[in-house]
Design a protein that fits this description.
Two copies of one chain form a homodimer. Chain A is of the alpha/beta class. The first copy, chain A, is built from 13 helices and eight strands. Chain A has an eight-stranded mixed β-sheet with strand order 3-2-1-4-5-6-7-8, with helices on both faces. The radius of gyration of chain A is 21 Å and the shape is elongated. At the A-B interface, helix 9, helix 10, helix 11, helix 12 and helix 13 of A face helix 9, helix 10, helix 11, helix 12 and helix 13 of B.
Chain lengths: ~280, ~280
């Protein structure tokens, strides 16, 4: 019987647990979480078999899945290097920044423990086990960095999550961090900054603005995301995020110049290109 | 019998026409549009009574509603000043930048023609009469700048649109342009720039990124908006938009600094403030 230990039973950890239990009901799922509500809820759902301390859970697991914020995952990987784990244990994670996590796993891998770094692109501004919505999470891209794990371990891990029908993609840690800096970290950074800017303007205004426009609400929906998690994400991938922000500021700068110059042709060309790209990306 | 002439039967013009006809079925609605499909479709819907040239439509109307892009509205206001219109005609518009429109209406108002500037905050990235969805458009904020229109004309205009249950708010043109620069123009500008940045990074990458993340798609939905309309909007409210972009860049700059300094406290504080503001605005 396979035992999976999940450290962090928030939205992602609880979702993966649900997918595992769905296609592999005999798999024993043990978890640890700072918030007992997450543990109790998943127990009620019939997904969690038992709660345990990090140390006990890790020692008894065939698969250890680290699903806490990036900073915590890095600490856990170092703690795991000092524990006596099962032979053939596979350690994986769901952190959003892989270079820093890869570095934190060096001591563990040096001990010969197999590590398979991962990142399901299935986040939400919603948090906690209670918000698990497996329908919303199927078919997402799931990046995997094989590290020192075997083909067999890679295949069995993918099979464990078969219920989610993820689109697994093998990449290296550096490429992953570049991709998510632009595709995920930058949009979140921009949404937080946009929400702050508009809120300050509203508060400074003598006029009541009425209900916010639908466009603004859509553009900033992800600014409702968990601040603790995103602080950890932003600080764990600084170079790539700062580079993406530089690229973004160049785009803003070019649009500003076109407006300042009243250059309709340049502005229309940029907006048309952006619009076409956005419409195309939606189809992929 | 009241005759309403609408110049521009795109999404907004056609939506307002639909609301007018709903509660005021005997009102005669005449319209002009560059795209005959919009006219034919609204005729089929039983909303449009007749199509006409701009000149004929304007001359025979009790209410003239200008619903084309801002640049076109400004030209139409100047054309109207040279036409012999009905006595007691009321001219209104739906343009997204009011100071420039107010300036363009000076000659018309100097002739004693009543002008009531307006802006329903009910846009969409969808365009054209075929996308009219009155359910989606009800209860929105509708800014009105009274200009030289009478209380009676103001009331009858609001009554004409009673089916939409708009939240009408009287403001001055300058305040309006400040509000929409931050609440609408800035988010669109940011979405266009974000879509361009991410697309360029994807195209430059050696790795296939897979499906775009849901967060990115939400944050850039409004970048699918009509490029012609938004070029016109951005160029018609330059000072306020550039000021909003400066404020936004300061927010981005502070977040960048916190990341570069690995200042978790400052970053967490900013993200928490942005998150709380965004969640609060949604409730209003």
């Amino acid at each position: 019987m396979t035992t999976v230990f999940i450290d962090g039973l928030g939205l992602i950890g609880a979702s993966l647990a649900t997918f595992i239990k769905k296609n592999h009901p005999t798999t024993r799922i043990i978890a640890n979480d700072l918030n007992p509500e997450n543990l109790l809820y998943m127990k009620e759902q019939g997904v969690l078999d038992a709660a345990s301390s990090f140390e006990d859970g890790a020692k008894n697991a065939d698969i250890i899945l680290l699903a806490s914020p990036v900073a915590a995952i890095c600490l856990r990987l170092k703690e795991l290097a000092d524990l006596s784990l099962k032979d053939n244990v596979l350690v994986s994670d769901v952190g959003s920044s892989k270079v820093q996590i890869e570095e934190s796993a060096q001591a563990l891998m040096a001990k010969g423990v197999a590590f398979l770094a991962g990142h399901p692109m299935a986040g939400s501004h919603l948090t906690g086990a209670k918000n698990v919505d497996t329908k919303r999470l199927v078919n997402h891209t799931y990046f995997l960095i094989q590290e020192n794990s075997s083909q067999e371990q890679l295949s069995s891990f993918q099979n464990l999550l078969s219920a989610a029908n993820f689109d697994f993609r093998l990449v290296d840690a550096a490429s992953h961090d570049q991709i998510v800096a632009a595709s995920s970290h930058l949009p979140h950074m921009v949404a937080f900054a946009l929400a702050s800017t508009v809120n300050k303007a509203r508060e400074a205004s003598a006029v009541d603005w009425g209900k916010p426009a639908a466009g603004f609400l859509d553009a900033t929906r992800i600014a409702k995301a968990d601040a603790t998690m995103w602080t950890s994400v932003f600080l764990s991938n600084p170079q790539q995020i700062l580079a993406s922000l530089d690229d973004f500021e160049k785009e803003i700068g070019r649009l500003k110049q076109a407006i300042a110059d009243q250059n309709a042709d340049a502005l229309f060309k940029d907006l048309t290109t952006a619009q076409a790209a956005r419409r195309q990306m939606e189809k992929e």
